[in-house]
Amino acid sequence: MKFKEIYAFRAVMRTGSMTAAANELFMSQPNVSRLISQLEASTGLTLFTRNAGRLAPTEEGLAFLREVDRTFVGLEALKDAARNIRQFGAGRLRIATVPSLAMTVLPLVLQRFHADHPDVYVAMETGSTQLVAEQVGNRHCELGLVSYLPTAAVTEAHPVAELFGCCVLPPGHRLAARKVITPADLAGEPFISMAHGDGLRAAVDAAFAGDDRRVMHFETPYGATICNMVGLGLGVGIVNPLVARMYRHTNIVVRPFEPRVPFVSYLLLARNRPANLLVDRFIARLREVIDAEIEGLAD
Fold first, then answer.
1. 44: CATH
2. What is the CATH number of the domain that holds 182?
3. Which domain does 147 fall in, by range?
4. What is the three-class DSSP state of 194?
5. Do residues 150 and 276 both lie within one domain?
6. Residues 6+ apart with CB under 8 A from 209
């Protein structure tokens, strides 16, 4: 299998004909046809059916195209990397993170990191825990931050904050005088939950297994959104105390919750990653900020 055969195949799939692909690749139509035949021979796949001079992709051809496109996504990432190196030199850092951390502790980390390295270009991408793990695993991003442990085995995970969930209540709520909130206290309360499929949702629901009388009005994947909605009086919720700390300006009431629900934030790194001084320095600032914020929870 040769790369020019893959290029020809992709061009034919994109344009729909050998002739159009030949024009795009500045080749003759017989040359494109020969490359496709060689690719079919080397892969053992029938990529197209040929009826009355017309091409139609087979199921094998469509499946193979999906794998080819994945490879080309990787090539585009290499082009982006080369462009960034030309523009910014080796001083660049790409971070993947879940939104709850992007909207809370990460800006504080970036503030400190930028003060130390004002010429370093930093790109931050947000997404689900699984997406963050994939971005780090395929080395599109140098590091990732997530709110629960992902299933991807291509990354190594390091806990950076191990806390227990807190209950957030609207301003002036009837339970504001309580020192600790329990599932029984929240009977009949409108509850804003984490989204289904989120690892934290299962942990919170498990805490209510013996006495679940919540009124499930809303769900969202982000603790930051829960805090904003609680501040508007839309219900109560269980969130990471670091997230709740960042939303004190909404006048939400924050109380410990029992039974304890673990909220662990993880740093993700690619396995067998090359040494990177910028990554190491960013991680040092990350740990400093998180440690300071955890200390501030006692205030």
1. 1.10.10.10
2. 3.40.190.10
3. 90-161+264-296
4. strand
5. yes
6. none
Q: How far is Cα 30 from Cα 216, in angstroms, rounded to an integer? A: 64
Taking the C-alpha atoms of residue 100 and residue 1, their distance in angstroms, rounded to an integer, is 45
* Whole-number Å distance between alpha carbons of 1 and 45: 12
Whether the CB-CB separation of 91 and 83 falls below 8 Å is answered with no
Phi, psi torsion values for 20, nearest 5 degrees: -65, -40
42: tokens are 């080397």
Give the span between the Cα atoms of 135 and 140, in whole angstroms.
5
SS3 assignment for 49-84: EEECCEEEECHHHHHHHHHHHHHHHHHHHHHHHHHH
Q: How far apart are the first and last CA of the chain?
A: 64
- φ, ψ for residue 58 (rounded to 5)? -85, 175
> What is the distance between the alpha carbons of residues 248 and 267, in angstroms, rounded to a whole number?
25
235-241-242 Cα angle (round to 5): 120
What pTM was estimated for this model as a whole? Answer: 0.64
Is-contact 105 146, C-beta < 8 A? no
3-state secondary structure of 21: helix
Q: Would you write out the chain's pLDDT as a tens digit for each of its 299 residues? A: 788 888 888 888 888 888 898 898 889 989 999 998 998 899 888 988 887 767 888 998 888 888 888 777 677 666 666 665 555 445 789 999 998 888 888 999 999 999 988 888 899 999 888 889 989 988 889 999 998 887 766 678 999 989 999 999 999 999 999 999 999 999 999 999 988 766 788 889 999 998 899 999 899 988 888 999 999 999 999 999 988 988 888 899 999 999 999 999 999 998 877 778 888 999 999 999 999 988 888 76
In the sheet with 253-256, reading across from the earlier edge strand, the strands are 237-239, 166-169, 253-256
